[in-house]
Task: inverse folding
């Protein structure tokens, strides 16, 4: 390993000198500082090539502040952030602001050497990392500060640097895919593509070929060789959603990949070795599925060593308001609408509901409320239309029958039919106005006028 000039900034003497000794044993030259200001003064004169920087320095400025000052001097100097109380947002913010990586106390020498080796081997990886981690803050941020969701975030940070499989459990709509995305983008594989597949959304006959690939001529339509997701996700992450829906016979092949790290494409005897970090999710009780002989017990114990359970929204009501506010922000920005505030009465109404559909249902409710307010800048209680299970269970055929039996002038009837169809399409596309307008073949402004 090529020796570097490494600057270490920490307000704890034990950390400062133990880390310095370990790095010197690895052939590096070290310069230690108890204050960030001393580091700033010596970056150029001591020709530092890597910096280890504690986030909490016990002074007026934090490590985050010094990252900006370091970047003003050197835009590419690798900065490894050290934190004793790391959380996802702090770690991601540090890296987004210019840090190269982060490690947690207590420090592990092997992890430190691995970080340095990564810098040596592939510096360009860290440029891509900034772009990917920006996606975490904007797209994959997990909103909420309840005790339950804080534990989820803590486990994400703990498991993200490991190579073990993780099983993510929770009811429909709780955000299992968000957790999986965070596990990938905070991992050492973050610069690689994030691959995912939903077992429930693919015909059973196609799942095996999607995962393992196939050789030309294996079946009708196999005109050429095709790599599956396991091959494409080598050295990366593969998220298998709804693993509980996978047929029993195919589960044995998944177990082989986990245990042996190898597989064969359909129609081939060739064995491929892969290094794939596997993430799984399910809304089912897999123990019950094992009792029903629908899920393999040996597979369950291989994928559930590390498990993250996402609690339903009804069990963390303090998260409802911040999630609702984020939904408002994202929807109004993506549809070029003015931001809307929630009234106190609207807050109260949202907090009293049980959300059987969890965060996905809350998004549905808030999206409708934004549309219902029209030109008003405040969402009030009357705009919050909660999903009535009785009305949801009403068969669509009955609604259609009533619509056609009632006699009205043609223009009124056409308007009602159009409204019914537009509402159905909005629901189909998760209230994405741009996608709905595109599918309907109309301009976004026309769609917005129709639903106001």
Result:
């Amino acid at each position: 390993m090529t020796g570097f000039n490494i600057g270490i900034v920490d307000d704890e003497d034990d950390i400062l000198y133990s880390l310095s000794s370990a790095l010197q044993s690895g052939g590096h030259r070290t310069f230690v500082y108890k204050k960030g200001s001393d580091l700033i003064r010596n970056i150029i004169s001591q020709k530092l090539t890597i910096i280890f920087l504690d986030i909490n320095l016990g002074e007026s400025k934090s490590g985050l502040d010094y990252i900006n000052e370091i970047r003003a001097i050197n835009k590419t100097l690798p900065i490894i952030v050290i934190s004793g109380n790391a959380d996802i947002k702090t770690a991601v913010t540090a890296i987004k602001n210019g840090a190269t990586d982060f490690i947690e106390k207590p420090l592990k020498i092997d992890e430190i050497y691995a970080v340095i080796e990564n810098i040596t081997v592939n510096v360009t990886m860290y440029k891509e990392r900034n772009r990917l981690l920006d996606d975490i803050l904007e797209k994959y941020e997990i909103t909420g500060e309840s005790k339950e969701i804080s534990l989820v975030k803590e486990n994400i940070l703990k498991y993200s640097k490991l190579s073990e499989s993780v099983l993510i459990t929770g009811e429909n709509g709780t955000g299992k895919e968000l957790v999986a995305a965070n596990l990938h983008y905070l991992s050492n594989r973050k610069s690689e593509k994030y691959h995912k597949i939903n077992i429930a959304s693919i015909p059973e006959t196609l799942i095996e070929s999607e995962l393992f690939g196939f050789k030309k001529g294996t079946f009708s339509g196999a005109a050429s060789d095709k790599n599956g997701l396991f091959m494409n996700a080598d050295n990366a992450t593969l998220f298998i959603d709804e693993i509980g829906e996978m047929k029993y016979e195919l589960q044995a092949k998944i177990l082989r990949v986990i245990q042996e790290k190898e597989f064969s494409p359909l129609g081939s005897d060739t064995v491929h070795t892969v290094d794939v970090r596997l993430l799984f999710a399910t809304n089912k009780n897999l123990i019950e599925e094992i009792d029903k002989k629908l899920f393999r017990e040996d597979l369950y114990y291989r994928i559930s060593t590390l498990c993250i359970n996402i609690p339903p929204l009804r069990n963390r009501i303090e998260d409802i308001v911040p999630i609702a506010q984020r939904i408002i922000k994202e929807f109004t920005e993506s549809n070029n609408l003015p931001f809307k505030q929630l009234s106190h009465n609207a807050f109260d109404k949202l907090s009293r509901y049980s959300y059987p559909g969890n965060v996905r249902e809350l998004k549905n409710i808030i999206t409708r409320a934004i549309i219902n307010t029209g030109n008003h800048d405040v969402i009030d209680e009357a705009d919050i239309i909660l999903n009535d299970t009785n009305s949801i269970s009403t068969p669509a055929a009955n609604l259609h029958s009533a619509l056609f039996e009632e006699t009205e002038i043609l223009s009124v009837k056409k308007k009602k039919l159009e409204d019914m169809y537009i509402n159905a399409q909005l629901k189909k596309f998760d209230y994405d106005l741009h996608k709905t307008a595109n599918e309907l073949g109309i301009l976004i402004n026309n769609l917005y006028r129709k639903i106001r």
Observations:
- The CA atoms of residues 396 and 402 lie 10 Å apart.
- Confidence is low (pLDDT under 50) at residues 389-399.
- The radius of gyration is 26 Å.
- Residues 394-451 form a domain with the Arc Repressor Mutant, subunit A fold (CATH 1.10.10.60).
